[in-house]
Design brief:
Length: 366
């Protein structure tokens, strides 16, 4: 098997990575939910924040498996990958946990001062210990770090996954069936924090998230068994429209408070249809390196900006009145611009520290 990627695949991965980082921001910016299909905000939520943006996390896990698959035929690949991921995942996990602990304490105190309440308000006891949490049954205090934690667990599990995949078609089919059943089993689980240990472990942000594990496995499979045939452009657009239609139906079901099985299924179908179509519609034309290299730094930095923006919005009283849709879109754009405005000068001023915090990602080659 050839380990190197073609230039077109590499560029599409970079382009998609940046777009999916923007999608993650759009998910985390809070929007007004008490709206109807008569409001533009409802459609923005159905198609963007609660729609196509949901392809981001599965895409990142597929890419992680896909890139790992390029090394699994090399001698000693597993031990080498573990050492590399300790440097690029585990160390940044704890570094960002410490940074968020400091930021959380400072921003909470500032918010309390601006609100005229006691300084200790909203600061939990033993807050300093909770930010070192690497626990299994709860999300990390800096919420986006669940992705890093879960990905490292998948790297640990990659050796038996690859071993089974290389045993033959029967073994591969059995593993695929098991992972697919596990994926379907968790469809009704909450999209955020679960209410039971099982949901915390295997749910959307769990340390053994079955949906994320399926995406990681799919990436491994596609690298070891590449698909050469490309669908026509009009078929891709049709598939994308079907995926967006599933997201709209899901939004209707959420408004009607229907079965979580139904909403989870519509979300899953919408994700994989949209991801498939978006990948083949994505251009392989090179985008500027300084833009595509922002994907992982933007993923890590934007929650800081969202928190700071929330404090600022509470402090500033005289703000223009915007529609829910315009408010959501403007705040999303503002968070992206401020995050980029922090990342670019920081990585140029502190390249070594930036390389450490971002796991070696986000630096352009000179």
């Amino acid at each position: 098997m050839q380990n190197s990627l073609s230039p077109s695949i590499s560029q599409k991965l970079a382009n998609m990575g940046f777009v999916c980082a923007l999608f993650v921001v759009s998910i985390h910016v809070v929007y007004k939910q008490e709206v109807t299909p008569a409001d533009a905000q409802w459609w923005v939520a159905a198609l963007l924040a609660d729609g196509i943006s949901h392809i981001a996390v599965p895409f990142f896990f597929v890419v992680a498996g896909f890139l790992l698959g390029g090394h699994v035929t090399e001698p000693g690949w597993w031990a080498r990958e573990i050492r590399k991921r300790i440097r690029s995942l585990v160390l940044p996990f704890f570094a960002w946990s410490i940074l968020f602990a400091i930021f959380f304490l400072g921003s909470t105190v500032i918010a309390n001062v601006l609100s005229g309440v006691p300084l200790s308000r909203n600061i939990p006891e033993y807050w300093w210990w909770s930010f070192w949490n690497f626990g299994i049954l709860e999300s990390p205090p800096y919420n986006v770090l669940w992705f890093i934690r879960t990905l490292f667990v998948f790297i640990l599990l990659s050796a038996p996954l690859v071993w089974v995949m290389q045993k033959g078609r029967i073994w591969l089919s059995g593993l695929t069936l098991i992972l697919l059943v596990a994926y379907l089993w968790t469809l009704p689980f909450p999209q955020k924090e679960g209410i039971s240990p099982v949901e915390f472990i295997f749910g959307w942000m769990g340390i053994l998230s079955t949906r994320s594990l399926f995406a990681f496995f799919l990436g491994l499979f596609l690298r070891l068994h590449p698909i050469q045939k490309k669908p026509s452009t009009w078929i891709c657009w049709l598939i994308l429209l079907l995926g967006l239609g599933c997201f709209c139906l899901r939004r209707v079901c959420l408004d009607w408070e229907t079965s979580r099985w139904l909403t989870g299924s519509l979300d899953a179908v919408g994700i994989w249809l949209s991801l498939y179509a978006t990948w083949y519609l994505m251009t392989a034309r090179p985008w500027p390196k300084f833009i595509t290299s922002l994907a992982f730094p933007l993923f890590l930095v934007h929650p800081f900006v969202i928190i700071a923006l929330g404090i600022m919005m509470r402090w500033l009283q005289a703000l223009p009145t915007l529609t829910p849709c315009a408010s959501y879109l403007s705040r999303t754009a503002f968070v992206i611009m401020i995050s980029v405005g922090i990342i670019i000068p920081f990585r140029h001023a502190f390249p070594k520290l930036s390389a450490f915090l971002f796991g070696g990602r986000g630096l352009t080659k000179k």
